[in-house]
Design brief:
Elements: E1 2-11, E2 14-24, E3 29-33, H1 40-47, E4 55-60, E5 75-78, H2 90-100, H3 106-114, H4 130-142, E6 148-152, H5 160-175, E7 179-183, H6 187-193, E8 196-201, E9 204-210, H7 211-215, H8 221-229
Length: about 240
C-alpha cells in the first residue's frame, strides 16, 4: 500500500504541501484530485523520491522510495508523460528501462502487447501522438509487474476508446491486488474508475474516502469537487455574461 503521513513541503515560508495524510490500499484504485497548484505533483514527487519533504513521510509498503532495491519491481510510475528520448524506438526505450532494473527482456513484449503498442514497437517516439506517448509511459510503469502503480494524468491525450481502455486496465490491476494511485482532472472518468478519493486544495486534504463519503449530498463527483475546492482557487473563469463561475 501507499501511506502518506503528515507530509509537509515548504518553499521558503510557503507550504505547498501542508500536513497531507492519506493511504492508497492494495486492491483499490485511489483517485488523487485537486485543482492546478493544489500540491498533487509535489506530493507525488516526494512519494517517488524525486524531492525531499520538509517533514512527514511517504512510504511504499512501509519503505521510502529511495530505500527500495530495484524500485521498478515494487512501484511503477508515470509523471509528466513517458519521459523518453524521442530518437529511440518504443522497444529500445522499454528495453533500456528494463535493463536498468534487471527486468527480464520478455516483459518488454508483454507490456507492448498489453498497451496496444506492439505494431508501433519499431517506431521512433518522436513520431508518436500524445496518446501513444501516454500508452508508452504506462507500458514503462508496468515493466516490473509492480504491486504499486502511481500514474499522473494517464488519460491525457487519449481518445474515448483509449480512455475506456485505461479505465479497464486500472480496474483489472486493482482486481489483481495492486494499489493504484491516479491523479486526474477528469472527474466523470474518475467517478467511473476509482474506489476511493483524496481531494487536495492549497496543499491540504479537504476530503477523502469512498465516492459516497466524498460526494455527500452532491449528485456527482464533479459537483462535490467544485464545492470542496472553489474557495481555495484564486483564478475564476468568467462566463460570457460577465459573472464569475
Amino acid at each position: 500500500m501507499i501511506e502518506v503521513s503528515h507530509l509537509v513541503k515548504r518553499h521558503g515560508s510557503r507550504a505547498v504541501v501542508d500536513d497531507v495524510s492519506f493511504t492508497a490500499a492494495a486492491g483499490r484504485v485511489t483517485g488523487f484530485l485537486g485543482p492546478n497548484g493544489a500540491g498533487k505533483s509535489s506530493t507525488l514527487r516526494i512519494l517517488l523520491g524525486l524531492d525531499r519533504p520538509s517533514s512527514g513521510v511517504a512510504l511504499i509498503d512501509g519503505t521510502p522510495y529511495r530505500s527500495l532495491d530495484r524500485p521498478l519491481w515494487k512501484v511503477g510510475a508515470m509523471l509528466d508523460g513517458p519521459g523518453a528520448n524521442k530518437g529511440r524506438t518504443a522497444r529500445a526505450h522499454l528495453s533500456w528501462v528494463a535493463q536498468s532494473n534487471a527486468i527480464p527482456k520478455r516483459r518488454v513484449d508483454d507490456v507492448l502487447e498489453l498497451t496496444g503498442l506492439r505494431d508501433a514497437a519499431g517506431t521512433r517516439i518522436g513520431r508518436f501522438s500524445l496518446g501513444m506517448g501516454q500508452r508508452l509511459g504506462i507500458a514503462a510503469a508496468l515493466l516490473g509487474d509492480p504491486r504499486v502503480l502511481v500514474l499522473d494524468e494517464p488519460t491525457n491525450g487519449l481518445d474515448p476508446d483509449g480512455i475506456r481502455w485505461t479505465r479497464h486496465l486500472l480496474r483489472s490491476l486493482a482486481a489483481d491486488g495492486k494499489a493504484v494511485l491516479v491523479s486526474s482532472h477528469l472527474m466523470n472518468e474518475m467517478e467511473e474508475t476509482a474506489d476511493d478519493f483524496v481531494v487536495i486544495a492549497r496543499g491540504r486534504v479537504v476530503a477523502q474516502g469512498d465516492a459516497a463519503k466524498v460526494k455527500g449530498t452532491h449528485r456527482t463527483l464533479e459537483e462535490a469537487f467544485f464545492a470542496l475546492t472553489d474557495a481555495h482557487v484564486d483564478y475564476r473563469a468568467t462566463r460570457p455574461d460577465g459573472e464569475s463561475r
